[in-house]
Amino acid sequence: MSPPNRYQLLPHSALPSFPIFGRKKHHSLASIPRVLLILSLCVPVIVITWVFYKLALVSNAFRTYETNPPVFIEPFKGKGKEVESSVPVFPSWVTSQMNSPDTILWNVKKELSRRYIEIGLPDLTVGCPAIRSLRSDESGYLEQRYSHLFPETATNPTSPYIHQPQGYFIALNLFNSKAVIPHLFSTLLTVAGLLGPSNVHVAIFENGSWDGTPTLLAHFARALSALGVAHTIRSDSHVTDWNNVDRIAQLAEYRNVALEPVFNYSPSNPPLFQAHKETNLTRHPILPSDVLFINDIILCPADLLELLHQRRFQGASATCGLDWREAPEGSMWRWLRGWLSKNYRFYDNWVTRSMEGFPLRPRVDMFGELRDGVRELFHWDSDPTYLIRWRAAIPLPVYSCWNGIIALSARPFLPPAQGGHSFKFRNGHTADGECAASECKLIARDFWGVGETKWVLVPRVAVTYEEEGYKSEWIENRVRRGGVPGMDKDLKDRRFRHAPSTAMPLEEKIDWSMVKNPERVVCFPYHVGDRLEIWPLYQEGSSMNSSILHDFNRTSAHVPWEDII
């Protein structure tokens, strides 16, 4: 009998089942490396294609900009109209003369909050430290720190500060600001009450909002009238065509509309009056001493008072806080948000420059959204003094800043008859070789040109554009308290929560004789359309950037620089 054929087909019932399933499993597992291999090849191809596409756009944008500069429509120059008359006046009980000034302030804020809640806005949720309440050590400290700003104590002969009446001009530009208005306006009312209602003028210009902002402004105007605060609050229905207008020229125009009462100051038409101390009836005009410009931010009264305090304490031309946003930001990072620890980044990097002329953090950084928002600041400065003061949350000198909130000397904005220079916000004179910078940076350049060179960054004034960030422990511990790892623990522990500074005066005071002014400042010009900001692309002598100078003696040889006036 011949042996069985090893290749002889067996009946179907005799075939084992496991080899078939085993082969399927083998094929399934084998497909995973293939998929990974395909992905590893496709992803770099996609990334490289995207990069070359962007570079092509950039190259085309640069060629187009130099050979055929964009043609803009004229900036909108509307003045708007007052909105106060569109809503009812506050009831008489709110401002009854039987009440104390503090009670009147409380009643005004309560009535405004009631009206906003009726409209559908949420009640206030940001807890700010009390300034005058003596129920805690913190508020007692704040009252003592800022007492020289309050009219009833400003004339104290023992005060080291100027005793003459001070006028505070508070200016804002708003657009679709419903989310921040309840808290922002409550803060402004508190500050006006503390500084003296007759010493404050509030000016707001809004246009194009569709979220009900004009109505909210009207109620706020009624609140200011009830409190006795002079104000110029106007709204315009015009919607800005940002695609066809020079953005910087238009923003400058809007800021100038808000500042018109200062520009047009005359003894016969002053924006501010000082009530006679004894009778409260005789009133005489006073010059504005400070211009406070505020973005649509979340802040507390102590933030505003700290900037005013530091302007006097440091003898400064301008004092700024810092504005922060949550990171990472942008579509490419959105999917990572749930996996990353909370982090915030300094926002207004385009305007702010250190005393060595650098931005506070790298302007272009592929992984910037993942970096520590505190440690990355003052990245390039060779003088460690600025970094030390920054990480200790102590005021430090800078060349320029804005950062959502700034207190400026009012004098440069006043007409020459009042000892001023009639400064206005503007765009860059690019035809004369000036950097096409932000209107907020150019105002610093103009200040420097007339000797107003003492600009101070106040780290503890940390503001945000939403409530969650302002209340966050990250902002509180890392920024306001100078909570950088490695700091002296005792130094951190003696800081009060939200108190802008509890540093000793000698530690806090800037020695201006030791501050060296920058010779040149990095220029990042404003461009229209898609572009990739890589410093070497800004070439010396181009018609677009004729003001940009390269200092090849520095280690950063390809940084675009502009000369200081």
Automatic annotation (TrEMBL):
Entry's InterPro entries? Mannosyltransferase_CMT1
* Signal sequence residues: none
Question: What is the top-level taxon of the source organism?
Answer: Eukaryota
Pfam families named among the record's database cross-references: CAP59_mtransfer
Q: Does the keyword Membrane apply?
A: yes
| Regions crossing the membrane | 32-53
Instruction: Spell out the molecular function terms from Gene Ontology.
Output: glycosyltransferase activity
Q: Which UniProt keywords apply?
A: Glycosyltransferase, Membrane, Transferase, Transmembrane, Transmembrane helix
Q: What is this protein called?
A: Mannosyltransferase 1, CMT1
Task: Report the source organism.
Answer: Phaffia rhodozyma
